[in-house]
Design a protein that fits this description.
117 residues; 50% strand; seven-stranded mixed beta sheet; single chain; mainly beta; globular; 11 strands; four-stranded antiparallel beta sheet
Length: 117
């Protein structure tokens, strides 16, 4: 079992930046894919959207809407995955979840990000 704990969310003005962290309770070295997903306002948890992901081999994938603005990084020695979010827009608002997908599918509890003036 792996527990994932997100942190770093909050309220930020448009154009601002936030860095989200996902701390795993044990090594993520063997977890093939680590990613960040967003649940937009008014949507159900089942409608979470991929924001960014990175495999253990370093292959990254970004949603078109965040390319060039968000950067995912994976630090296995720290059991941590980060999401650096720059040039934030109101449409980036939502609950951000960390996911670890390997033999099992792990999800964190989420952290709220609100982009508003």
């Amino acid at each position: 079992q792996v527990q994932l704990a997100e942190s770093g969310g909050g309220l930020v003005q448009p154009g601002g930046s936030l860095t989200l962290s996902c701390l795993a309770s044990r090594s993520i070295f063997s977890i093939n894919l680590m990613g960040w997903y967003r649940q937009p306002p008014g949507k159900e948890r089942e409608e979470r959207e991929l924001v960014a992901s990175m495999t253990s081999g370093g292959i990254v994938n970004y949603a078109d809407s965040v390319k060039g603005r968000f950067t995912i990084s994976r630090h296995s020695a720290q059991n941590t995955v980060y999401l650096q979010m720059n040039s934030l827009k109101p449409e980036d608002t939502g609950v951000y979840y960390c996911r670890g997908l390997g033999k099992y599918d792990y999800w964190g509890q989420g952290t709220q990000v609100t982009v508003s003036s």
